[in-house]
Amino acid sequence: MIRAPLLRAWAALMCLSLGATLISLWHWPPALEAVAGVLVLSLAWLKARIILSSYLGLDAAPFWRRGFGMSLGAFCLLLLGLYLLPGLL
């Protein structure tokens, strides 16, 4: 039954990709464009977590999954800050 978790992960990746595509194609009002960027970045973060956990097998190694998750979270927060910085200046 190794195929079932990978198929579920693949289906989740496809749904998240579709969601990010729909968000990016939607015509957002200028006041909400930052919200769209945050949503797309959040979906990318979720996709990266799925890839790390399911495809790289970090579900079996909680210590490494936590370390990669913290690094990924810090990187996504950095990207979020860089994305939102021009709007704050």
How would you characterize this protein structure?
The protein starts with a helix and ends with a helix. It has 89 residues and is mainly alpha-helical. Helix content is 82%, strand content 0%. The longest helix is centred in the last third of the chain and has 27 residues. It has one domain. The chain contains three helices and no strands.
Short overview:
With 89 residues, this protein is mainly alpha-helical. The protein has helices at 3-25, 33-55, 62-88.
- Helix fraction by DSSP (H/I, runs of at least 4): over 70%
What is the averaged pLDDT score? Answer: 92
Shape by Cα distribution: flat
Largest sheet: none
Protein topology:
Blueprint (H helix, E strand, L loop, with lengths): L2 H23 L7 H23 L6 H27 L1
Helix pairs in contact: 1-2, 2-3
Overview features:
mainly alpha; 3 helices; 82% helix; 89 residues
